[in-house]
Amino acid sequence: MLKTEIIEFGRLLRKGGVKVSVDQISTALEAVALVGFAYEDFYMALFTILITDQMDRPLFDKLFRLYFVTAAQNQKIPTKDSQQTSIPLNLVQNIEGKGMGIGAGAAPYQLLVKAVRELNYPLLRHLAHMGIRSSVFPEREAIKEMEKLIEQVKVAVGWYMAVNKLEKIRQQESVSETVYLSWLDCLAYLMDYTESQLEDLFVKEYGLEILDEIADAANIREKDFVKLNDLQIQEIRKRISKMARKLATKYARRYRRAKHGKIDLRRTVKEALLTGGTPMRLKYRKRVISKPEMVLLCDVSGSVAHFSDFMLRLVYTIQNRFSAVRSFLFVNTIDEVTEYFKNKSIQEALDAAFAKARYAMSPFSNYGRVFCEFEEKFLSDISPQCTLIILGDARNNYNYDEKERLQKIQGCVRRVLWFNPQPQESWDTEDSIMSIYAPHCRQVFECRNLKQLEEVIETIL
Amino acid sequence: MFHSMEELEKKMTECGYLIDHQVATVVYLAIRLQKPLLVEGPAGVGKTELGKVLARTTNSRLIRLQCYEGLDEAKSLYEWNYQKQLLYLHVKQNQSKAWHEAKDDIFTPEFLLRRPLLEALESTKPVVLLIDEVDKSDEEFESFLLEILSDYQITIPELGTIKAKQIPIVVLTSNNFRDFGDALKRRCIHLYLDHPKFERELEIINLKVPGISQALAQQAVLFVQAIRKQGLKKSPSMAETIDWARALLTLGVSEINTEIVQSTLSILLKYQSDIDKLLPRVSSFLSED
Predict the structure, then answer these.
(1) Is B226 close to A177, i.e. CB distance below 8 A?
(2) Which end of chain B is more exposed for a tag (fewer CB within 10 A), N or C?
(3) Domain ranges of chain A
(4) B185 reaches A (C-beta below 8 A)
(5) How far apart are CA A170 and CA A311, in angstroms?
C-alpha cells in the first residue's frame, strides 16, 4: 500500500530534476520496512537513498513536506487514485505556532522589526499567516506565479520598510556581525515559511495534482535563464561552479596516462627490471591535448546579462582548459574585460568588469554597431586559431545588422559559435534577427537552461 | 551486529563518537541493507573517524585503503609477486619440469600479493573496509570499484571469481574534490556530514577537551559558528575548533577577547587571505557581554 506513495514520490522528484532510478525506489521500500514510520526515520531513510546530491536537498524537503505531511493532514483531498488517500503515516508535525503578544494597533512592519530583533520565530510565523490571509485567495493558475504571491505578502507585512528600519538600527546601534547575521536568518526564514505556507494552501485547496507543477517549477536545471529570480540565480551559480570543477578535473585525469601514444622507454625499461629484463607491459607517454583559444563576446543587456554572467564564471573557472581566454562585454558598444580577471576571484573580477568597463551608452543592444567596432578595434590582434563565442539573443532593436562584418570576423578565426539564451520559438520574432546572423556562424545553439548549457559546453572543449 | 538504531547510537557514543539520530539512521540502514556507505562533507567533520569507530563498535578488523591519483588494481586489489615467481622458476630450472607443470605452480595463491580490497573479501572475520578519499582516485578506479561494491566479488583471470566470505561493511569517504559517476552514487547509501550545530559542537568540545570551563567553551563555539557563515575559502572544521579550544586552555585564557582571538586566529584559519579578511573584524563577532 505504501508502495504506490513511494513510487509516486519518486516520480515527483524526477519531475523536479532529480535522477532517481528504479533500483533506488526498491531500496527505499526495503529501508522503510526496516526503520518504520516515525517521522524523522522515515524522512532520513528516503532522503539518504533517493538523493545523491546535497544540492537537491531543498527540493526533496519541499516535496516531502507537501506530499507526506500536508497531504496527510488533509484527508479530504481529491486524488487521481482513490486508494492513495489512505496514507498510513503518522506524520503530524506541529507547524502551527500562534504568535503571541501582538501589540494592538502596531503597524505590521513594526511587528516585523520587533520579531526580527527578538529572534521571535512564532511571531514571524504569525506575520506570514497574517500576510497570506490579507492577500486575495489565489486562483489555481496562480501557482505559476509564486513570486508575485510572495511579493504580495511582503508588501502586506511591510517587508521593505522593516528592512530599511533594521539597516538604520544596525548603523545607529553598531550591531555586531553575529547579531546581524541572525537577523538575516530571520528574514530568510520568513520568506521560506511564507512560500511553504502558500504551497500548503495550494495542495490543500487544489489537491495533490498541483504538486506536479510545483515540482516542475522547482526544476532548476530546466528553468529558463531569462526567468530566474535572485535566489535561483545564486543556486545556478553554485551549480555552475560545481559543474566547472567537474569539467576541470575530468579530462586532465583521463588524458594523464593516455592509452595510446608514444612509448615512454625509460618507464618501460624500469618496470621490465621487475620481470628480469623482459618488458611485460609498455608504458606510454603523457598525451598532450590541444587547448583551444577562446574569445567571448557577451551581450550584457537586460535579460541576457545573467546568462553572460554564468558563462563567464564557467569559462574562467575552467581556464586551465584553454590556452588563452579573452572576453568582451557589449550592449551597444564593446569593451575588453580580460584584464579584470587576472589575479582576482571570479566574483571580484565580474563586479569590477561590470562596474568599470565601457560597454553601454544606452540600455538597448546594437549588434551591428558592436560587430563594426570589434572588427575595427580588436580583430587585428585576435588569433586566427581561436574559437569565437557570441552570447546573445540577437535582438538588434531594429538597427542595421551589419552582417558583412560578422562574415569578415568569421573569416579571421577558426570558428564562430553563437549561444542564444532565448527559446528557439522566439528567434526571428519581433526584433530578433538570429537567422540573418546564423549563416555566418559555424553553429547556433539554443542555450536557455542549465541542462543545455552543460551540453553546449562539451562542444567547445 | 546491530539489532536496532538505538543500540547503534548507544555503542557509538560509548566509543566516544557522538552521533545524532539522523546519522545513526543512515549508518544503520547501510549496515542492514548491506550497501556501501558513502560519506561526504567538508574536511575535518569526522568522516574517517566514523569508519574507524564502526570497526571498534562491531569488533571488526579495519582495513583501510587510502586513495590517491594513479591508484590502480595492482595496489588496491592484488598483484602477482613477480620476483618470487622468478626465484621459484630459477630453483625449479634444475629439476627440468615441463612448462605446464611449472605454470600450474606459479599462478597459485602462494604468489598472490593481497592488497586491501582482496583482503577484505577473503577475510572470514567481520571486516570494516574503509576506502578513504575516493574522490582523489581516477575515474577508471571508480568504475572498477563497482563490481566489488555491488556484488561483493572480484574476478582474477588466473584464479577465477572470488566471492566475499562474509559481506564487509564498506565506508567510502569523499571531500567532494570531484563528482562521482551516477553508477557509483546509485549503489551507495549517502551520508552528508556537515559542521555540527552549536549544541553538538559544545558537547564534543566538552568531551574532547576535558578541563575547559563551560563559559569559555561556549564563547569559542559561538565564535567558530559565526565565522563559518562568512564564506571563507576554508571554514574551520570541528578538528580546528578542538585544537583552538586546547590552545586557549593551554594559554590559561578564562575569557575570549579581541586580542586573544587575533593572536590565535591562525589555528582556526589555514589561508592567509581568510585571516586577512577576518582579522580587522574579529571584535564584531564577539558578543558584547
Answers:
(1) yes
(2) C
(3) 2-85, 108-218, 291-460
(4) yes
(5) 36
Tell me whether A266 touches chain B (CB under 8 Å).
no
Q: For position A14, what pLDDT does the model report?
A: 92
ipTM of model: 0.81
Q: Is A177's pLDDT higher than 50?
A: yes
Q: B82 to chain A: which residues are within 8 Å by CB?
A: 274-275
Q: How confident is the model at residue A254 (pLDDT cuts 50, 70, 90)?
A: very low
Amino acid of residue B241: T
Q: Over the stretch A206-215, which tens digit does the pLDDT of each residue have?
A: 888 888 888 8
Query: Furthest-apart CA pair in chain A: how many Å?
Result: 94
A250 vs B21: CB contact, 8 Å cut-off? no
The CA distance from A275 to the nearest CA of chain B, in Å, is: 6
**CA closest to A251 among chain B residues:** B139
Distance from CA of B204 to the nearest CA of A (A): 22
Q: Are B25 and A44 in contact (CB under 8 A)?
A: yes
Q: Are B38 and B189 in contact (CB under 8 A)?
A: yes
CATH homologous superfamily, domain A291-460:
von Willebrand factor, type A domain (3.40.50.410)
Give the residue on A whose Cα is nearest the Cα of B282.
Answer: A177
Q: How many residues does chain A have?
A: 461
B1 has pLDDT over 90: no
Per-residue pLDDT of A389-400, as tens digits, reads 999 988 888 888
